Amino acid sequence: MIVFPAIDLKDGKAVRLKQGDYDQVTQYSDDPFQLAEQWAKEGAEWIHIVDLDAAKAGKPVHRELIARIAREVKAKLQVGGGIRSVETAGQYLEDGVARVVVGTKATQDPKFLGDLGKNFPGKIALGLDTKEGKIAVHGWTETTGLTIEDYLKTAPLSGVHCLIFTDIARDGMLSGPNLNALRDVLKITELPVIASGGISSAEDIQALVDLEDCKLLGVITGKALYEGKLSLPEAIRIAKS
Question: Is the pTM here over 0.85, yes or no?
Answer without folding.
Answer: yes
